[in-house]
Amino acid sequence: MKKILIIEDDADILFIYREVFTEEKLKVTTASTGKQALKLLTKDMPDLILLDIMLPGNLSGYDVLKIIQNKPKLAKIPVIILTNLDAEINKAQELGAKDFIVKVNTPVTDIISIVKKHLLA
């Protein structure tokens, strides 16, 4: 069973994504802060990460992405940025994100397709 880590601070969005991906037969782990996500990554490596840019606390999504990219063991995990900030696509790609999803413009069915595409790559 493929595993994904969803890092999202909006509890409603996190609930929806967890439910949808669980129905797709994926093992879902969630975090609402960057610090929490990094702790989870040391315990159980996912096959893919969905990462929000705007996170509470000291670590933004970009900070988390930089940390992931600088650890050889984690750098191989595809990271898909989830955000409502569509102007951030270039920065996300420069930092190593494999894909970029604008949440408000992307139906959940499309997000599922994007995730599956990267899990099968």
TrEMBL record:
Q: PROSITE patterns attached here?
A: RESPONSE_REGULATORY (PS50110)
| 4-aspartylphosphate modification, residue list | 52
Reply yes or no: does the keyword Mitochondrion apply: no
Q: Which Gene3D superfamilies match?
A: 3.40.50.2300
Identify the domain of life: Bacteria
Q: Which residues form a coiled coil?
A: none
UniProt cross-references to InterPro entries, sorted A to Z: Bact_response_regulator, CheY-like_superfamily, Sig_transdc_resp-reg_receiver
| Keyword Phosphoprotein assigned | yes
Q: Which residues form the signal peptide?
A: none
**Might you name a Gene Ontology BP term for this protein?**
phosphorelay signal transduction system
Keywords, in A-Z order? Phosphoprotein
Occurrences of domain Response regulatory (ranges): 3-118
PANTHER family per record: RESPONSE REGULATORY DOMAIN-CONTAINING PROTEIN (PTHR44591:SF3), STRESS RESPONSE REGULATOR PROTEIN 1 (PTHR44591)
What is this protein identified as? Answer: Response regulatory domain-containing protein
